[in-house]
Amino acid sequence: MLQMRPNCECCDADLPPDSSAARICSFECTFCASCVDTALAGKCPNCGGGFAARPTRAAHLLAKYPASTERVLKPEGCGRAV
Known about the structure:
Layout: E1 22-24, E2 30-32, H1 33-37, E3 52-53, H2 59-62
Antiparallel strand pairs: 1-2, 1-3
Protein name: DUF1272 domain-containing protein
């Protein structure tokens, strides 16, 4: 099950579970569409992989399977490490 992280690792923008702006890589690194398209040029800085739109979780399932509340933020910013 996806963790559904609550923020962009690059700019710390909020990405609620129903956000259409959330993008994830195969390791669930989570970024906003704006950072993926601009600062990251479509390549994950953590693993080097590509991104896909994060699926949303049906509202009635969020109570039983809540999204993560753990915020992950790259302290060094959006620099492409890989």
